[in-house]
Description:
With 71 residues, the protein is mainly beta. The protein is built from 1 helix and 5 strands. The protein has one helix at residues 16-22, and strands at 2-13, 26-39, 50-51, 56-57, 62-70. The strands form 2 sheets. A 3-stranded antiparallel beta sheet has the order 1-2-5. The N and C termini lie far apart (46 Å). The model has no long low-confidence stretch (mean pLDDT 83).
Amino acid sequence: YFDISEVYVAYTFKTKRIKQAMGIDGLTVNLVANNVYTFTNWPETSPQMFKTSTMYFPMIRTLKCGLKVSF
Length: 71
């Protein structure tokens, strides 16, 4: 199987006009996604599924965003 487990994207604003309008020195926005997608030929479920004695649970997909502001 092939697993995309984490994707991280960030952008730092360089425009002085935006910084001056907001009264800040720096601004960065980021986005992190975990357990994005699994490519597999596994017959029933993903090979990474969590199994209890009677049930299967898929890996949880999470999405987080952040903002870094410098004054």
